[in-house]
Design a protein that fits this description.
With 187 residues, the protein is mainly alpha-helical. The chain is built from 9 helices and 4 strands. The strands form 2 sheets. A two-stranded parallel sheet has the order 1-2. The protein has a two-stranded parallel ribbon with strand order 3-4. Helix 2 (15-22) packs across helix 5, helix 3 packs antiparallel against helix 5 and helix 6 packs across helix 7 (134-144). The radius of gyration is 18 Å and the shape is globular. The model has no long low-confidence stretch (mean pLDDT 92).
């Protein structure tokens, strides 16, 4: 979805990209992750073995909370820096893609919060398309189960992304234009 917003001119700040950056070799967060989860989450070259870590944290909610406690303090200032840089560069729209936008308090910085939803069957198909095996897909889906219901009250707009790609792209574009129109009429 972010790529479609970018096609419409939005600057994209992706929390997953930032999270990957703060867990690269030499970053303090990587050392903390290895200290908490053991050498089994580190590849031979010293980089983070994301698959091994995912197998742990998506099977254990406490482990996921521990991982978030390590990474979120490193991610937040970089996200804020990327948002500020996009605004300073004159971006008319800055879209922050973050699964924990509301819980992290970043939603308070946003003019709108879009909740992106789709059925679990669609999630399974998409995860399989990205190479996830069935047990991994189920762990990931289970870790997010109930998320939409919890976040719906904080959402300005809900975007259903379970349809065909062209329909979803059109819906994203129309939602963006509606948001921009609402913002311009509010000023």
């Amino acid at each position: 979805m972010a790529r479609w917003l970018a096609e419409e001119g939005a600057a994209i700040v992706d929390a997953d990209v930032v999270a990957r950056a703060v867990t690269e070799r030499g970053e303090p967060a990587l050392a903390e992750i290895v200290r908490r989860f053991g050498d089994g989450v580190r590849r031979a070259d010293g980089s983070l073995d994301r698959s091994a870590l995912a197998a742990i944290v998506f099977a254990d909610p406490a482990a996921l909370r521990d991982l978030e406690a390590i990474t979120h303090p490193a991610v937040r200032p970089r996200l804020l820096g990327e948002i500020a840089a996009a605004e300073a560069a004159g971006a008319g729209v800055v879209a922050v893609e973050a699964i924990r936008l509301v819980e992290s308090g970043l939603a308070a910085l946003c003019d709108e919060v879009w909740l992106i939803v789709c059925e679990e069957a669609v999630q399974r198909r998409r995860l399989a398309g990205r190479g996830a095996d069935a047990p991994d897909a189920e762990r990931r889906i289970a870790a997010q189960r109930g998320l939409a219901a919890r976040l719906r009250p904080a959402a300005t707009r809900v975007v259903e992304t379970g349809g065909e790609e062209d329909d979803v792209r059109r819906q994203v574009r129309d939602t963006l234009h509606a948001a921009l129109e609402a913002a311009s009429s509010a000023t």
